[in-house]
Amino acid sequence: MRKLIANGTVVTASETFKADVWLNDDKVEAITAPVGTLPKDRVPQFDETIDAKGQFLFPGGIDVHTHLDMPFGGTTSSDDFETGTRAAAYGGTTTIIDFAIQQKGGTLTEALDTWHKKASGKAVADYAFHMIATDLPPARLEEMKRIVDEGVTSFKLFMAYPNVLLLDDQSIFRGMLRAGELGALICMHAETGLPIDVLIERARSRGERAPVYHALTRPEAAEATGTERAIALAEMAKVPVYIVHLSAARALERVREARDRGLPAFAETCPQYLFLSQDDLARPGFDGAAYICTPPLRPQHHHEQLWRGIRNHDLQVVATDHCPFCMKDQKELGRDDFSKVPNGMPGVESRMYLLWEAVQQGKIDLNRFVDISSTTPSKIFGMYGKKGTLAVGADADIVVWDPQKEVTLSVKTMHMKVDYNPYEGKKVRGGPSHVLQRGRVIVKNDQFLARPGDGQFIRRRTHTL
Ligand code: URP
Ligand code: ZN
Ligand code: ZN
After folding, report:
1. What is the C-alpha separation between 389 and 272, in angstroms, rounded?
2. Do 53 and 98 fall within a single domain?
3. Are residues 171 and 215 in the same domain?
4. Are residues 105 and 212 part of one domain?
5. pLDDT at residue 96 above 90?
6. Does any domain span residue 196?
7. How many CB atoms lie within 10 A of CB 336?
8. Is residue 433 included in any domain, yes or no?
9. In angstroms, what is the span from residue 27 Cα to ligand 1's centroid?
10. Residues 361-404: pLDDT tens digits?
């Protein structure tokens, strides 16, 4: 089956040029001058043509940080693999990396099997997994190889959430050494969690229970010291490290210093840290609970530092940490106590719209937009060549992006299975007219054309960072 996407402007992480793109089944077959200008005998018969005049062609978005169907805080994130990946595709994201979670005392293999069962037959977009390791005795360190051999080549470790997910420094260090042997990447939740719990305890005892205390008990200093410690441990272990959901200027300084010293330290931030702020957590009554995620939203002045970090390549990735909980029945679990509000926010569908707005505002250019949302995530997480660029031989995951499309970010217009939208009512200009996954049109002018189970599991390579 041959398709032609004609008259569009191709954007990659490094170039912008007008071209026609030929697809043959699931792959990009050729990128050429307009077929009308080519000798007729060089042009094959196409089964379908998409006219992309006036539109951009991007590689499908890659969101390397989602939590679908994840048990957390006494409940389960409200999007499962079907609804979450459908919403992702509507927003121009064709591949996600979700997190399998090892039960304390359980094996990594059990966790991976559980997450395969959650995703298989349901996902509509392509998906891969990271492994959250919560317990790393010698047998589990040994088992990490089996997980890497299954194509799960990154492990998330936590410095926060004592008694739940936190790993002590010795276990973290052993995990890093083992990851180094296997060519796997350590992703770190880098907040120093033990003092945070003391701050939470003290706030609660003073009756400080409103959502804004979530931010006030998780100060920037806790993230800065966590980031510094994660990088120092990785330096001692001589391995690369990837800091997830970086939210604050001082944490970014730690990453920048490490990179300036030549260390392989990488970091992602998320749209909520670029577009929302602590003021949202301070909304009246319980409304701020909608904005409880970890690390917390920071005061507005952090935004400019993070944008600068993106422009300077100190931040390489913008992922979402999509972890939705409905206000009703879920966030409400913490109505009288911020520390009982399940942590997390929806975002998998809105990421590309928001980053596009940043292009329009001149915060980043078109190529950097593609780089942070697709190309570099693909490179860091072992998918490049197949995913993350628009090139001959790559998977034909393509977003046809209409810069004139008007979209209102709202719970009414979007497809995430959650009863609020953090950007409710925000109007943006620019969005996908068509989303193709491996050559198949899965979104066409707001019509959804894929079926549950169409998404494929992506086995990722070990890294060469
Ligand atoms: O609030 C968040 N981020 N929830 C998901 C868990 C995590 O730490 O990524
Ligand atoms: Zn985290
Ligand atoms: Zn997360």
Report:
1. 25
2. no
3. yes
4. yes
5. yes
6. yes
7. 10
8. yes
9. 35
10. 999 999 999 999 999 999 999 999 999 999 999 999 999 999 99
Residue-level pLDDT at 463: 79
Give the nearest ligand 1 atom to 70 CA.
Answer: 5
In a domain, 391, yes or no: no
User: Which residue is closest in CA terms to ligand 1's atom 8?
Assistant: 294
Diameter over CA atoms, the chain: 79
Same domain for 197 and 116: yes
pLDDT of residue 280: 98
Structural domain tally of the chain? 2
Residue 454 located in a structural domain: no
The atom number, within ligand 1, closest to the CA of 244 reads: 9
- Looking from the CA of residue 67, the nearest atom of ligand 1 is 5
How far, in Å, are 9, 86, 222, 390 from residue 435 at the CA level? Answer: 15, 11, 40, 13
* Pair 199, 303 in one domain: yes
Q: Is the pLDDT of residue 465 over 90?
A: no
Which ligand is nearest the CA of 295, by number? 1
pLDDT in tens, 256-298: 999 999 999 999 999 999 999 999 999 999 999 999 999 999 9
Nearest CA to ligand 1 atom 3: 294
Atom index in ligand 1 nearest the CA of residue 158 equals: 8
Token pair listed for 70: 């994840």
Q: Which range marks the domain in which residue 69 is found?
A: 60-380
For the CA of 320, the nearest ligand = 3
Contact 233, 226 (CB under 8 A): no
Taking CB atoms and a 6 Å cutoff, what residues make up the pocket around ligand 1?
67, 189, 245, 293-294, 321, 323, 343-344
Q: Any idea what the CATH number is for the domain that residue 425 is in?
A: 2.30.40.10
* Same domain membership, residue 83 and residue 42: no
Separation of 230 CA from ligand 2 center, angstroms? 13
Question: pTM of this prediction?
Answer: 0.98
